[in-house]
């Protein structure tokens, strides 16, 4: 067996239906008395309710400005708000956008974070922050970004619309896939990533119907596992492309991941040596790229970048940005290869 390094992530995880009830206890456990509850405008009512439950003894207020791709201007306004309200901790309640705002604030202040995720994005399990500055998404990692606590309460995911649930599930699967072939992959993460994929693939077709409650529980656990996988390993071409598309063209994050994933897999396959075998096994397929593409189609998710709003004339610009900085990837990056990948993904051609 190859040698490896494994570092466990320090985030405390509380999982279970109804567990939002322990939020106040977790705030007190960290010695906080003036936390800010963060949400998007769309989840304002949820944020107000949670801030009200914490009450004035623990909560300084609710801020509902979280925005996808974490634009710098939003962070700067939120930072001023936090200073004005003498905030001593952050409670993001929402998907990756809300956790992203929290992380961007923590990067600048080291404020502790208690995350309450409501999608399958998995950001609460990583030390990664992507911020959009001057139209480009810049990614960085660091201990000040890693949240202290994550409360996974599937009750909060019951309201997630099915289309977002599906694409968010693919976003999570993409984390696990890239961890399997990461330059710093290791046996623990291989196990966790594969199990995350298995749970999500099993749950995604059951999110509606009689088994929806159990499927939501399973999907959120899968998302946690996939988030751990992303947080423990280096990202490669797939995440790089998703960030380029999000930051430069403001494409929706989970949908972009869904449309791109089969093509990133197909690009890297020739350079792999069994790293995706466990994922193939989880999907019961010999051709993972096709299986992911077909699953997305069956579940009604977007399978082309055109569908998610990518401009046709953006392919060249995206190729240049993706190739401009070096990063680890199983298959060497070539301009022609990435352009062809993006062209196939734009048109949604089933990977061959
Ligand atoms: P999102 O957080 O933008 O949520 C999409 C919309 O759905 C929002 O309006 C949100 O309020 C709403 N929503 C979320 N949960 C809901 C629920 N349970 N019920 C009803 N509405 C709900 O989308 P996302 O895909 O979770 O996050 C995307 C962002 O996360 C991107 O900016 C991406 O870069 C970032 N991200 C970061 C990491 C990381 O490790 N740094 C990982 C994954 C994603």
Could you characterize what this model shows?
- The protein has 352 residues and is of the alpha/beta class.
- The protein folds into 2 domains: 146 residues, 3-Layer(aba) Sandwich (Rossmann fold); 186 residues, Dehydroquinate synthase-like - alpha domain (Dehydroquinate synthase-like, alpha domain).
- 49% of the residues lie in helices and 11% in strands.
- α5 packs parallel to α7 and α8 packs antiparallel against α9.
- The protein is globular, with a radius of gyration of 19 Å.
- The mean pLDDT is 96.
- The site of nicotinamide-adenine-dinucleotide has 32 residues, from α4, β6, α5 and α9.
- Nicotinamide-adenine-dinucleotide binds next to α4, β6, α5 and α9.
What would you say about this model in short?
This protein has helices at 23-29, 44-54, 72-84, 96-109, 162-180, 187-204, 212-232, 237-249, 253-268, 277-282, 288-298, 315-324, 335-347; strands spanning 12-15, 35-38, 59-63, 89-94, 114-117, 128-133, 136-141, 149-152. By secondary structure, it is α/β, with parallel strands linked by helices.
Give the biggest beta sheet: 6 strands, parallel
Radius of gyration: 19 Å
The hetero compounds bound to this protein are: nicotinamide-adenine-dinucleotide
DSSP helix count? Answer: 13
From the 3D coordinates, which CATH architecture of the largest domain would you assign?
A: Up-down Bundle
Strand order of the largest sheet: 1-8-5-4-2-3
Strand tally, please?
8
Shape: globular
Number of domains: 2
Q: Which structural class do the helices and strands define?
A: alpha/beta
Instruction: Give the helix proportion (percent range).
Output: 40-55%
CATH topology of the largest domain: Dehydroquinate synthase-like, alpha domain
Q: Describe the oligomeric state of these chains in a short phrase.
A: single chain
Strand content: 5-15%
| CATH class term of the largest domain | Mainly Alpha
* Mean model confidence by pLDDT: 96
Q: Low-confidence stretches at least 5 residues in length (pLDDT < 50)?
A: none
Distance between the termini: 32 Å
